């Protein structure tokens, strides 16, 4: 007896419905991992340009350009990540729209150098708009079967669309007005999720979304490991600075490992229980991610100082390492660690970040920084994370 087969989905598309936020065993898909790999290119390009600006003593211009460029990188990644945790289907249309975003990231990476050199945002903004238009298509598709989240998905699509039109208009401006408008548009982008989620929350999977953030953090910390390898390569070509360069590579590895340890010590999924918590977690990660990316540039600056190729003073060069480390540690402490830690950890971790900043004025700042980070990790090893309900206050 032949049994009837289920009807084939129209156009071979899977209905895009809200995902179960309690779905067991939810992990990052291969498409999401592939998506993240493209951002390695953009992050690396931003770090390289920041390194060049810092080592040429163009500190203020370099930091402003880096902050603006990194916003585009982070916001494009973050929007797709939160959408995917709520509505991913992994059919052919979903994949194609994701590939379009990936292509936009590659073009965005090509537009990073003009921002740093000439303050020309044309390529960067056009690539960014392409990525955001693809996200509009995703949100509109999701809105068809979003249920209670329908108003939120529509608000996302409309809000993103309006801001993209304004981004294109911004390209016609110049001078101080262009910079002012750019800042206002960044604020508008940040406001879209706040408005949309108040009209109907989209379902996010705590374990899945925090895993995605952890994976992106690994990519950024990997940039520091690349800088470590560059220090060893430089040492092999510069006998005069062999000892210091080898030392900086070892100390960088120690610091990077400590940052990894600190980041993954608390249970991140407990940090996004409410909309307010998830907003704080998502938005403050901008500073965590940007600091991790800037750290690799700072390490390269240290290498330039040791080889006599930097225009920065030793103290100024030290800040390029200590400031990113302090921001990274304080950011993770505030959004994920402090609610799962006792008084000792909640004292040691932020104090360690402050002491790292003071290391700048020591004769061997990277050595002292590495020692402080190791001591912080030792405390974390001795103190287990405390569940939020039972933490000491």
UniProtKB/TrEMBL annotation:
It holds the Pfam family LtrA. The keyword Transmembrane helix applies. Keywords: Membrane, Transmembrane, Transmembrane helix. The chain crosses the membrane at residues 33-51, 63-85, 92-115, 121-140, 152-169, 175-192, 213-233, 245-263, 283-303, 315-337, 344-362, 368-386. InterPro entries: Low_temperature_requirement_A. This is Low temperature requirement protein A. The lineage of its organism: Bacteria, Bacillati, Actinomycetota, Actinomycetes, Micrococcales.
């Amino acid at each position: 007896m032949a049994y009837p087969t289920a009807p084939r989905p129209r156009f071979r598309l899977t209905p895009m419905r809200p995902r179960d936020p309690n779905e067991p065993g939810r992990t990052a898909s291969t498409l999401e991992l592939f998506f993240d790999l493209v951002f390695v290119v953009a992050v690396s390009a931003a770090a390289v340009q920041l390194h060049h600006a810092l080592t040429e003593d163009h500190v203020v211009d370099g930091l402003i350009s880096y902050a603006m460029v990194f916003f585009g990188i982070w916001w494009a990644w973050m929007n797709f990540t939160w959408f995917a945790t709520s509505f991913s289907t992994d059919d052919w249309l979903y994949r194609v729209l994701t590939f379009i975003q990936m292509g936009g990231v590659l073009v965005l990476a090509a537009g990073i150098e003009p921002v740093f050199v000439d303050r020309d945002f044309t390529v960067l903004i056009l690539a960014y708009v392409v990525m955001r238009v693809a996200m509009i298509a995703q949100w509109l598709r999701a809105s068809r079967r979003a249920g209670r989240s329908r108003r939120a998905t529509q608000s996302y699509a409309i809000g993103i669309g309006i801001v993209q039109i304004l981004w294109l208009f911004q390209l016609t401006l110049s001078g101080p007005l262009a910079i002012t408008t750019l800042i206002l548009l960044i604020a508008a982008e940040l406001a879209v999720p706040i408005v949309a989620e108040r009209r109907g929350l989209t379902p996010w999977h705590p374990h899945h979304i925090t895993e995605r953030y952890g994976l992106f953090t690994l990519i950024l910390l990997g940039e520091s490991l690349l800088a470590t390898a560059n220090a060893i390569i430089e040492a092999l070509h510069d006998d005069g600075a062999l000892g210091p360069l080898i030392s900086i590579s070892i100390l960088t590895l120690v610091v990077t490992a400590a940052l990894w340890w600190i980041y993954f010590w608390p249970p991140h999924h407990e940090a996004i229980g409410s909309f307010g918590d998830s907003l704080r977690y998502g938005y403050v990660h901008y500073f965590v991610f940007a600091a991790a990316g800037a750290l690799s540039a700072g390490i390269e600056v240290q290498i330039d100082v040791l080889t006599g190729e930097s225009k920065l003073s030793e103290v100024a060069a030290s800040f390029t390492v200590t400031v990113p480390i302090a921001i990274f540690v304080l950011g993770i402490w505030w959004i994920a660690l402090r609610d799962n830690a006792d008084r000792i950890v909640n004292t040691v971790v932020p104090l360690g970040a402050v002491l790292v900043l003071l290391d700048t004025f020591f004769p061997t700042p990277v050595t002292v920084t590495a020692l402080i980070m190791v001591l912080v990790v030792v405390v974390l090893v001795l103190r287990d994370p405390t569940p939020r309900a039972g933490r000491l206050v």
